[in-house]
Amino acid sequence: MKILQISPECYPAAKAGGLGDVVGALPKYLNKAGHPTAVVIPKYQTKWLNRQQYATVYSGAFRLYQVMMPFSIERVLGEELEYPLYVANIPTKFDRPGVYQAEDGTNFGDEIERSICFQNAVLTWVRDMQEKPQVLHCHDHVTGLIPFLVKHSPDFKMLSHIPTVFTIHNGEYHGAYSWSKMHLLPFFDAAARGLMDWGNTINPLATAIKTSWRLTTVSPTYLEELMTSSNGLEGLLRGERHKSHGILNGIDTQVWDPASDTYIQHKLEKKIPDFKNKNKEALLTNFHFKPELPVITFIGRLRREKGADLLSGLIRQVLESGLEAAFLILGTGEHSIHQELQYLRGRFPSRLDIALEYNEGLAHQLYAGSDFLIMPSRVEPCGLNQMYAMRYGTIPIVRTVGGLKDTVIDMFAEGPIGRGIRFDQYKVGDAHHAVYRAFELFHNKELFPEVRKRIMDLDFSWEKSAKEYADIYDQII
Fold first, then answer.
1. What domains are defined for the chain?
2. pLDDT, tens digit, for every residue of 64-108?
3. 3-state class of 403 per DSSP?
4. Strand (E) positions, 209-333?
5. Neighbouring-strand partners of residue 420
6. DSSP string, 113-138
């Protein structure tokens, strides 16, 4: 292997958000481009991982305070993923169904120990490899101490020549914890302690920003946003700008292909209107709206950062205004948002329906059968949903933030190259106006099908993004 991707998520093995999609696709396209790449994640008890067969490639142990923790590295057998996937089997730490939380949404309570154990296990394995990777590519704060440890821990200093790349998928989460937990860490040079400190805490995200050889974010706009708003890391990021790159995520066009998608009722053949109409009809067998209404869908986590707390006020205002539209919501998240949406469904049963669950198959059908996808995000480092939607001819309505700004050109502001509808301010009124513009577009019998075809012809595949990562690897190797 040339590149080792180290991540807490990788689709389809373990996914909680967009990070899983990225780490599940990027290595596939790097391998196709001639850059041998593997992935290592913790061994959770997810349904997919429980179905697999494994071969143990390494067994060892590391120190966690005064206890030696045994672990093994196992390779997933089979060729389904098109790249080698390894799992770190650390008894009592990751052998649970959830990635970050229990199935009922509660925290496990030992997240700090879990992340430290995973990083220890991976570095111990890499240290003892006969043929070591040429780059360690780390993803988000769960892996944020690795660039520091290979430079400043006596246990791993023999890896200090291996370049590290660190990607920020979501800078909202730093993974910070008290210095009282320092005893859990591998030994490190006392003089290097300041590299881990930020705000008098051990801050894995800040540590990775300081010590990685290269730093990337998942869109160019998000890199600029982090330099002005990143929960206290703004100055640090500006100081490390010289090694930073904003690389827009791609999507896996083999998984997200309207012509072959096994999740959807009707595959794309020749005519886009037939494809959309048939999938809308299939959608409406479960969600009982009038077929002539534009269907506006939200897919994702029902959390503030995704703008989900705006949804109830927006839906109420739109439907009370008399605008003839229907809304579909798929996702889970904050209990208060669930309650608000359930109340509104009771008020508007023929115009709003919700599925409070994670359902990959239903998500695909929603992309294929909906007319619009709404993403009113407070923060959106890259966003993949808008790219999935456009691939299936569903027009995005998005807030002008992060990767949404990079991928969705407002069709009214910028004319014939427009791809969707944007709004700037995080306000119900602004979102309502965007929905009104979408309604007007839906009833424009010439422009609406033209925009659908335009967005389905766009190329959001991983080839371009993978090349940008490969260029970075080549530079630092």
1. 3-250+462-476 (3.40.50.2000), 272-456 (3.40.50.2000)
2. 999 999 999 999 998 889 999 999 999 999 988 888 887 666 788
3. helix
4. 214-217, 244-246, 295-299, 326-330
5. 410
6. HHHHHHHHHHHHHHHH-SS--SEEEE
